[in-house]
Specification:
alpha/beta; about 10% strand; three-stranded mixed β-sheet; about 250 residues
């Protein structure tokens, strides 16, 4: 709001490593998008990007065909439905229904089942963007291809990678001591790619659909992969060889 956002502007909520593809972002700006038309009830006005996931390297890509295999962010909502931008007189706050599984959540989901007669719904807070139900307003190119990218864990060293998981919102207490593969599934998948172990990853050349422009540079892809492999070897010398359980 301080930057001058208006009710007919588009608000995008994302982490710094989540971006729409260039062409889909242009489409959001220039096309007639039903969720961005004026006069929204603000029940489900979001447009949810379907992102290919790159784990640490351009050669470690984890997107699948079909909606179920994509990472469901970023999220875009028209300004008139965003808290602090839209009209609170038209969209006043309302009671939320908390399923038992969400009792520990700060706000709960945007679930208004207890108010079935509502015609206009509350403005969206950042929490709502990130916790909107999966499967609603998913945006795919040509009905099957990704519309976003998730550049996950693109750090300059595994020391930084370890520090993230030791200090972030869901810290792993001994993340700075144990073998990397024991941190979480995302890290394990990345290491399988770097070590050439059979896994669910695909290479850059196997991507169907749009690809990040920088990654089209083969010399960059080769240099990044080499850098990651060398740093992984140094990490294993300090913390032990990574062993992958059979699944």
């Amino acid at each position: 709001k301080a930057a001058g956002m208006q009710s007919d502007d588009i608000g995008i909520i994302c982490d710094v490593d989540e971006v729409y593809t260039r062409d889909f972002l242009l489409a959001l700006q220039s096309c007639d998008v039903p969720q961005f038309r004026p006069g929204q009830d603000c029940y489900r006005p979001q447009v949810t990007g379907q992102a290919l996931v790159f784990e640490g390297s351009s050669e470690c890509q984890f997107g699948k065909r079909g909606m179920s295999g994509f990472f469901k962010h970023p999220n875009a909502v028209i300004g008139e439905c965003i808290d602090g931008i839209g009209d609170i007189g038209v969209h006043p706050p309302n009671l939320r229904y908390y399923p038992e599984s969400e009792e520990s959540h700060l706000l709960g989901s945007r679930n208004f089942d207890k108010q079935p007669d509502d015609m206009l719904y509350p403005l969206w807070k950042p929490w709502d963007f990130r916790n909107s139900p999966d499967g609603e307003n998913l945006a795919l190119e040509d009905g099957r291809l990704h519309t976003a990218y998730h550049f996950h864990n693109f750090y300059d060293s595994f020391d930084t990678h370890r520090n993230k998981y030791k200090t972030y919102g869901h810290p792993i207490e001994d993340a700075d001591r144990k073998p990397l593969a024991q941190l979480n599934k995302a890290t394990e998948d990345m290491l399988k790619c770097l070590k050439g172990v059979r896994g669910k990853y695909r290479s850059f050349e196997e991507i169907e659909g749009r690809r990040p422009v920088l990654f089209e540079d083969e010399s960059y892809r080769d240099a990044r992969q080499k850098e990651m492999i060398e740093d992984l070897e140094a990490d294993e010398e300090r913390f032990g060889t990574n062993v992958f359980p059979s699944r």
